[in-house]
């Protein structure tokens, strides 16, 4: 695998969960790592710069600091993201705008700030962190899913416009066993049960997502741009095959 020695990797939301694992993986591969988040952790991976990734002013200031200190950016992992869950009917407008600010507009702004800092001869790469919620709607994820779908589209547009100088790809995780997701499911045992329902029999670990990011940013992926790499443990069996007798009978499968 490519050595990232001499390359600068910026990881947004690189202080917890998936982002921290991504930052650690790039550091282990030799990169100089910069992590951006709102609060400084007790022990940061790489150089920490405080920034709210939903604020274009903060993003511009953070990349100015990166430019002054390191002079270049080779890898940008747009990992900071998320949105409060909630049904579409009464989802607050302010929260919906905040979700798009963080998951879409913040990513666009970070990419715009990164571009002039990339080598003109190519080799730089952006990896966006999407979600299966952006490809498969489910109740309670209307706004989050819409924002991640927009991010997937933005990924492909940037890949077209910025080739061959910057490759742009998206990692699309299913559920990933982070502290926040474990809390969301009500604890480690409940989270493990959800994982057992996946074809691979477990949820992804943050390191699984980090591995996908490292590959997409590496020279081995030199011809990969505009791609969505699903890391979802095999996905989901369609419920209508197992559980809907009507659908099963219509398909002649007896509901299996
Ligand atoms: N976990 C999953 O199951 C899962 C599944 C699919 C996709 N994803 C996606 O993966 C990404 C990471 O998720 P995660 O579960 O690892 O999250 P997490 O554990 O909650 O960590 C989020 C990270 O992002 C930072 N962050 C959050 N809001 C920010 C903001 N406005 N500005 C700057 N930094 C911010 C946090 O630091 P501060 O709070 O200090 O700012 C933290 O470093 C997200 O884009 C999420 O949508 C996660």
UniProtKB/TrEMBL annotation:
<dbReference type="Pfam" id="PF13561">
    <property type="entry name" value="adh_short_C2"/>
</dbReference>
<dbReference type="InterPro" id="IPR036291">
    <property type="entry name" value="NAD(P)-bd_dom_sf"/>
</dbReference>
<dbReference type="InterPro" id="IPR057326">
    <property type="entry name" value="KR_dom"/>
</dbReference>
<dbReference type="InterPro" id="IPR020904">
    <property type="entry name" value="Sc_DH/Rdtase_CS"/>
</dbReference>
<dbReference type="InterPro" id="IPR002347">
    <property type="entry name" value="SDR_fam"/>
</dbReference>
<protein>
    <submittedName>
        <fullName>Short-chain dehydrogenase/reductase SDR</fullName>
    </submittedName>
</protein>
<dbReference type="GO" id="GO:0016491">
    <property type="term" value="F:oxidoreductase activity"/>
</dbReference>
<comment type="similarity">
    <text>Belongs to the short-chain dehydrogenases/reductases (SDR) family.</text>
</comment>
<keyword id="KW-0560">Oxidoreductase</keyword>
<feature type="domain" description="Ketoreductase">
    <location>
        <begin position="7"/>
        <end position="180"/>
    </location>
</feature>
């Amino acid at each position: 695998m490519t050595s990232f020695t001499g390359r600068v990797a910026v990881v947004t939301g690189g202080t917890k969960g998936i982002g921290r694992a991504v930052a650690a993986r790039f550091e282990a591969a030799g990169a100089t790592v910069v992590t951006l988040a709102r609060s400084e952790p007790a022990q940061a991976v790489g150089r920490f710069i405080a920034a709210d990734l939903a604020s274009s002013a903060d993003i511009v200031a953070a990349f100015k600091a990166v430019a002054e200190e390191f002079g270049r950016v080779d890898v940008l992992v747009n990992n900071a993201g998320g949105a409060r869950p909630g049904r579409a009917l009464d989802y607050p407008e302010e929260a919906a705008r905040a979700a798009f600010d963080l998951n879409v507009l913040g990513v666009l702004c970070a990419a715009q700030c990164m571009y002039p800092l990339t080598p003109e001869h190519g080799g730089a790469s952006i990896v966006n962190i999407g979600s299966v919620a952006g490809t498969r709607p489910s109740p309670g994820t209307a706004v989050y899913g819409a924002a991640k779908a927009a991010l997937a589209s933005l990924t492909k547009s940037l890949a077209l416009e910025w080739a061959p100088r910057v490759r742009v790809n998206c990692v699309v995780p299913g559920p990933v066993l982070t502290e926040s997701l474990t809390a969301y499911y009500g604890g480690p045992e409940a989270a493990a049960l959800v994982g057992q329902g996946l074809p691979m029999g477990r949820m992804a670990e943050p390191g699984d997502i980090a591995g996908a990011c490292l590959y997409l940013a590496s020279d081995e992926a030199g011809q990969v741009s505009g791609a969505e790499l699903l890391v979802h443990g095999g996905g989901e069996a369609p419920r209508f095959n197992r559980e809907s007798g009507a659908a099963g009978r219509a398909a002649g499968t007896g509901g299996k």
